[in-house]
Amino acid sequence: MNKKTPSSDLLKRYLANDCTAGEREMVDGWYKTLHLTSDEKFTEEDQELLFNRIENQISEIQPALHSKRNTFNNWWVYASGIAAMLLLSIGFLYYTSKIDSKHEITTGEHPVLITNRQKKALKYELPDHSIIWLQPEASIEHPKTFDSKTREISFSGEAFFDITKNPDQPFVIKSGKLKTVVHGTSFNIRANRNDSNYQVSVVTGSVSVSASDGGKDTGTVLLKPQQQAIFSTATNDLTLNTIKNKQTDIEPWQPVSLTFDDTRLGDIVARLQKTFRVKISLSNPAMMDCVLKVDFNNQNLPEILEMLNTLMVSTYEIEGQHIIMSGQGCGAN
Q: What radius of gyration do the chain's Cα atoms show?
């Protein structure tokens, strides 16, 4: 264990701006050892938003942290969890300020362009507080602020959307010839540019999906939960399918509720593989026997992986249908 790591009490007081100058200097010095680099300068408004987000995330993960012999020391996990939140939140601000050398968020009248260059799902919040989980290489483009009449974005790739309901301000997603009009709902879109078929699959609420050819509307379908629209990019045909709802045949974007009480991470991973039909590997065998007590309440796979990463102070990458989790394991002193 790093002896310079601040206690959980100190970190909480640091976030609340309720510590001495010496304590603040200690936390600042510790933070510099995390080697998070960024040339971006944040405004006071950005910093306030950041710390509000960190505090909310801490309150969400605190009940899930669990102490058990041969696994985690409670205060160390809590402190590590806060450190992870600091890294995730500040990294998120940096990421949304400058995605990479080819894709930058611009200000003024220019639209915001986001491309997920990471090998993991990226959680992104729109100006209306709608949430999008972007899969690797997925892209969205949206105005810096939505106008009073409509909320419209352009999208390509695959992502799960959880849209804030607002009947007076329709949410519209354009993916090439495909247009999805949202009525406050959660759903998944798969619209990779090179795919022969695009898919829109609804989890909650309803969406209207339409296709156009040369500006002419070629058909519209209304999707309810457990329904899916298939759009052929070659023929412009739009068809409606029903999604089979099987407990052992769930897509990664579909929410599930799972409870693990003093369960090995290896067994949790096995359950997730069976539930979501994906392959999950642990790069470090020492992670297998870490014991966790955690509830996943109506959460999809990206949300579950993010929570596991917070608890384990680990990371993950997606390679096709293969997810690889990496970390040091537990029980370190």
A: 21
